[in-house]
Amino acid sequence: MKTALCEKELLIQIGIKRKAMYKKAKSFGFTHPIVVSCSQELDVLINKYHDKVS
Fold it and tell me: Cα(52)–Cα(24) distance, rounded to whole angstroms?
């Protein structure tokens, strides 16, 4: 049960980070360092999620 909660929490965090990244990209453009950094943080969350489910 704990794993399912962790997976659900990661999905929530991924959704929040994705929305934040798109909001920043709309303001700064996709290649701005702030947006790139946010994208890298999103990648880390997605990789953690994939590690949990595989």
Answer: 28
CB 10 within 8 A of CB 45: yes
16-35 per-position pLDDT tens digit: 999 999 999 999 999 999 99
Give the number of other CB atoms < 10 A from CB of residue 35.
20
Contacting residues for 49 by C-beta, under 8 A, at least 6 apart: 7, 10, 11, 14
pTM of the model: 0.91
d(CA 39, CA 36): 5
The whole-number pLDDT of residue 6 equals 92
Residue 21 has a CB neighbour count (10 Å cut-off) of: 20
